[in-house]
Amino acid sequence: MAKQPMLKFVSTPRDMPEKRAADARREDFHEIYGEFARRKAAQQAARCSQCGVPYCQSHCPLHNNIPDWLRLTAEGRLREAYEVSQLTNTFPEICGRICPQDRLCEGNCVIEQSGHGTVTIGAVEKYVTDTAWEEGWVQPIAPSAERPESVGIIGAGPGGLAAADMLRRAGVQVTVYDRHDRAGGLMTYGIPGFKLEKDVVMRRNRQLEEGGVEFALGCDVGAEGAPSFAEIRSRHDAVLIATGVYKTRDLSAPGASAAGVVRAIDYLTASNRKSFGDAVPEFDSGELSADGKRVVVIGGGDTAMDCVRTAVRQGATSVKCLYRRDRANMPGSQREVANAEEEGVEFVWLSAPKRFVTRPGEEAVKGVEVSRMRLGQPDATGRQVPEVIEGADYVEDAEMVVMALGFEAEDLPALWDEPALEVTRWGTVRAQFGTHETAMDGVYAVGDIVRGASLVVWAIRDGREAAAAMLQRFDAASAGIAAE
């Protein structure tokens, strides 16, 4: 009888890939985790209990076949493990790096609930796909037949690229339009290299381009010199809107316009551009560099975590993060908070900015006046509402303040002169669940521009679903023509 390769969670403790020491990783933007060795990956995968009802899979937005590829990894069948993982996930090596597994698959692992420590799903996923790239198992896109239909995708983020991948594999002619000079959206210019090294994203971009996806980069749809939305619609049989959300939520506190108060998206984009070797005058002048400054970041999400950890690596003299609720109620990944604390970031819980302090006669920020908070009664959602503690204000000194309060949708109907494009009261594009069709015929929308600021994995799911809906539409149209 064959030896049982799984269910080793009782005898084998949970173990992550080796994490670089905090003092070393503060000095660069390389990823902080190493790779599993083949034997260690197999050991950790073998901890899976092979649940009859795999909660890890049901809580993954892509419903990845996690128990199946864990078992294949435990058995040493890595190529098969990769084939299974990529059936449902366009970019498994990216999700393995940046998904908040502690809130999704790993957070719902059954053996975690029983006190044995979750399976390290994300680390194994990353290992399997990185191995696939190294071994040449990741094949170029090669459609079995070309199709006549054409799709224009506006936005080269994860949703747009996931749709482009599926459509191109089916033989559809795909053009991706994006305002930036590199594809990838926030994966390229928003997420820092210590979470997602840029060659990982560029490698996927090259695969799509070599597979026949056409990229129109530096193309800000609707802007002067760029095609209008109406022109793009006229060029293609269908259009997918995958622009993401880039409009920063503002804070109306006095002094918010002072020099040194910067937006998170500008700050992170400048840092990532420097990692590519680009000329970034705003960084070189010190405007978007934390070097030698006391830095305060306002916000408690994953973007705030990216900002504080970037500031540490840029040589800030101190980095503090203000959040109006407590640690248990913050929206960001607890794993990221722990990494930030190891690297020297100080979190100031139950605190909110009241105003920005400037030097007399100058316009530069020198501090943040902070209101101390307490958690009051729950609101309609059950979440406790922060309340100001009167008379407990104080000033945090700072030469740079980064606003990481989240993102909102741009006014696309106005920007594109398309009043027929329906939006919600939040400004996000209204699209049907499942098919992602909008009110405009042949126009689809996916990712953050529909959901609001969300996760990369949800954008990938949306992009794949929209691509499937488009293919259904094309097939139905072709069948109709054939019947005539």
Automatic annotation (TrEMBL):
Segments forming domain Dihydroprymidine dehydrogenase: 25-136
InterPro entries, alphabetized: DPD_II (IPR028261), FAD/NAD-bd_sf (IPR036188), FAD/NAD-binding_dom (IPR023753), GltD-like (IPR006006), Helical_ferredxn (IPR009051)
Highest taxon above the source species: Bacteria
Span of domain FAD/NAD(P)-binding: 151-463
UniProt entry keywords in alphabetical sequence: 4Fe-4S, Iron, Iron-sulfur, Metal-binding, Oxidoreductase
Record bears the keyword Repressor: no
Pfam families: Fer4_20 (PF14691), Pyr_redox_2 (PF07992)
Molecular function, one GO term: metal ion binding
NCBIfam families: gltD_gamma_fam
Identification of the protein by name: Glutamate synthase (NADPH) small subunit
Biological source species: Hasllibacter halocynthiae
